[in-house]
């Protein structure tokens, strides 16, 4: 079997001396696709309405929705405007939200991470809290900028795992420790999503799309940071890899049947 193609969502960012608009995704996602999923990583540009969603669905075998410093536009879920200076990425939203809906309908394996989990919730009709640390009873889920990656991405809090859930099967535990690098979080859960894990303050940390015909799982933390050292992080990508390969095998079988 040839290697599957896994799409990795990009952000619009400015790079270089002249601040030219660019499309970027962290190397950590590419490394996870290379080393665990054993796939060809394909960067999906944040090109808004120019994105050809049907072609992406037809050509890809799976999708990883990445984290980002930018936040989903609040107008997409009926929320108030962001505070001044909050980073947004309209071009990314214009790709990822319709891509999510199309991928779920097609049964394309989908792994949603951090902002990706928030996009998944909004795409299916849910809403977001914009700053968890401003809510009564919630703690600060963001991590102060640290020059050392091992401090910036270290385990920050526990997650209570829902018994019998998919996450429970992967973790083989009722409680896990995760890193935490986000300000926003799920407010109203989309009707098609099921909660798989929560932080001690009630913040939703893991979800599954309960009506999707294929793999559709999201986490609020970043398993791509420590998949080489953390067993659960690696299992998340391994489970996604298994789903991607099943999808690829099915597509090749259908092609062979048509060719015959």
Primary descriptors:
260 residues, two-stranded antiparallel ribbon
Task: Write up what this structure looks like.
- This protein is of the alpha/beta class.
- It has one domain: Class I glutamine amidotransferase (GATase) domain (Rossmann fold, 3-Layer(aba) Sandwich), CATH 3.40.50.880.
- 32% of the residues lie in helices and 22% in strands.
- The protein has a nine-stranded mixed beta sheet, with helices on both faces.
- Strand 12 (204-209) and strand 13 form a beta hairpin.
- The mean pLDDT is 92.
Low-pLDDT stretches: none
Percent of residues in helices comes to: 25-40%
Question: What would you call the shape?
Answer: globular
What would you call the structural class? alpha/beta
How many structural domains can be distinguished in the coordinates? 1
The CATH C-level class name:
Alpha Beta
Secondary-structure arrangement, i.e. CATH architecture: 3-Layer(aba) Sandwich
Strand content: 15-25%
Quick one: biggest sheet?
A: 9 strands, mixed
Instruction: Specify the number of helices.
Output: 7
Order of secondary-structure elements: EEEHEHEHEHEHEHEEEEEH
CATH superfamily (homologous) name: Class I glutamine amidotransferase (GATase) domain
Number of strands: 13
Q: Which fold does the CATH topology refer to?
A: Rossmann fold
Radius of gyration: 18 Å
- What's the mean pLDDT score? 92
Tell me the strand order in the biggest sheet. Answer: 4-1-5-6-13-12-11-8-9
How would you summarize the topology of this molecule?
Layout: E1 5-9, E2 11-15, E3 20-24, H1 27-37, E4 40-44, H2 53-59, E5 62-65, H3 90-106, E6 110-113, H4 115-123, E7 128-129, H5 149-152, E8 157-161, H6 166-171, E9 175-178, E10 185-186, E11 193-198, E12 204-209, E13 216-219, H7 231-259
Parallel strand pairs: 1-4, 1-5, 5-6, 6-13
Antiparallel strand pairs: 2-3, 7-10, 8-9, 8-11, 11-12, 12-13
Helix pairs in contact: 1-7, 2-3, 3-4
């Amino acid at each position: 079997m040839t290697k599957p193609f896994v799409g990795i969502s990009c952000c619009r960012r400015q790079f270089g001396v002249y601040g030219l608009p660019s499309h970027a995704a962290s190397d950590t996602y590419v490394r996870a696709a290379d080393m665990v999923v054993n796939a060809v990583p394909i960067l999906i540009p944040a090109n808004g309405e120019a994105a050809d969603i049907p072609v992406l669905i037809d050509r890809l075998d799976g999708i990883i929705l990445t984290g980002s410093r930018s936040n989903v536009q609040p107008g997409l879920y009926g929320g108030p405007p962001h505070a001044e200076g909050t980073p947004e990425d309209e071009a990314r939203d214009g790709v990822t939200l319709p891509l999510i809906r199309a991928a779920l309908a097609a049964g394309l394996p989908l792994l949603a991470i951090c902002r990706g989990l928030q996009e998944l919730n909004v795409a299916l009709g849910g809403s977001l809290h914009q700053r968890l640390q401003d809510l009564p009873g919630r703690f600060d889920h963001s991590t102060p900028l640290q020059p050392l990656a091992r401090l910036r991405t270290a385990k920050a809090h526990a997650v209570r795992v829902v018994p019998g859930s998919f996450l429970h099967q992967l973790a083989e535990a009722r409680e896990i420790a995760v890193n935490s690098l986000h300000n926003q979080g799920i407010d109203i859960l989309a009707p098609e999503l099921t909660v798989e894990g929560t932080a001690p303050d009630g913040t939703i940390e893991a979800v599954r799309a309960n009506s999707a015909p294929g793999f559709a799982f999201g986490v609020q933390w970043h398993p791509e940071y420590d998949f080489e050292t953390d067993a659960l992080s690696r299992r998340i990508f391994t489970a996604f890899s298994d789903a991607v390969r099943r999808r690829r095998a099915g597509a090749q079988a259908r092609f062979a049947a048509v060719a015959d």
